[in-house]
Write a structure and sequence with these properties.
284 residues; globular; alpha+beta; 12-stranded antiparallel sheet; disordered N terminus
């Protein structure tokens, strides 16, 4: 994992995950292991575009949920997967994830899971390594990161993922299915980062605007699975960017799975004294 050298706590930290280290000979994982039963179920879909455009607002009204994430990256024939699990409060726009990196290519044991706190305009990471003390957090201003933190932390913020759907177009209803036993409607289309940023709410607007500038294309294909209440149960986006260090394209598929709506969520952001103010090591 390559980290651009910047300073934490300085307001302009850009801790961008370029992923060259992980992709250099490391393999593992696959798409998020969430079974989707392709047998059709009797669901009558809403207008496809309307259904996905309303997805973010419906999550905010739902309040909270448990979440699982997976980020699959592929380049040069090598594929790795980063997984996360936690909770999210859509009303407060706060979440907590434990993110697990794949095993080191040398066969060394996995490092301790990275704890990530998602907040409006910010990402906090603990157990980040790269010379950061074990009891300190690294803070990333997500509006200053080239990908808007859609990729940086190894997991896409669940609300930002849903807000991306506001820019969806060419949406079509694929059919009914069952996801973890829940009847869902499967929609497929392409969202435009520029369009999504223009209509996104709150701090997400600045985050998506950064992503629109940072990715090699503003068009992002997606698959969305919504339940009968229009709530996102599974959302998969496929991003593409160029790894400047190795001058090759990197394909990233980010998956968010939501369940347990209304689950208790208690996310507490770190105090200023607990945020690391030193230099992040280059190449860590």
């Amino acid at each position: 994992m390559v980290v651009r050298q910047q300073y934490a706590g300085g307001g302009a930290l850009a801790l961008a995950v370029v992923l060259a280290g992980l992709l250099a000979g490391c393999a593992g994982g696959g798409a998020l292991g969430t079974p989707v039963d392709a047998v059709p179920v009797p669901l009558v879909p809403d207008a496809p575009a309307d259904a996905v455009h309303r997805a973010a607002a419906r999550l905010v009204r739902a309040g909270t949920a448990r979440t699982r994430t997976a980020m699959d990256m592929a380049t040069g024939g090598t594929r790795v997967t980063i997984r996360g699990e936690g909770v999210y409060d859509f009303a407060r726009r706060l979440g907590e994830l434990r993110v697990v990196l794949p095993q080191d290519p040398t066969g060394a044991s996995r490092q301790q899971p990275i704890v990530e706190l998602l907040a409006p305009g910010a990402l906090y990471m603990k157990n980040r390594g790269a010379g950061v003390p074990a009891d300190k957090w690294v803070r990333v201003d997500t509006g200053s990161v080239a990908d808007g933190n859609l990729v940086t932390g190894g997991a896409t913020d669940p609300l930002a993922a849903a807000e991306l759907l506001r820019g969806a177009r060419g949406v079509r209803y694929v059919g009914g299915a069952r996801l973890d036993g829940v009847p869902v409607r499967h929609y497929r289309g392409t969202t435009d980062l520029v369009r999504a940023a223009a209509v996104a709410s709150g701090e997400t607007r600045r985050v998506l605007a950064a992503a629109a500038r940072g990715f090699s294309t503003s068009e992002v294909p997606f698959d969305a699975y919504l339940d009968e209440q229009g709530l996102v149960r599974k959302l998969r986006h496929r991003f593409s960017f160029v790894n400047e260090r190795h001058a090759r394209a990197v394909a990233v598929a980010s998956t968010v799975v939501l369940s347990g709506f209304g689950a208790p969520v208690d996310v507490r952001l770190p105090d200023a004294a607990d945020i690391y103010a030193g230099k992040i090591a280059e190449g860590a």
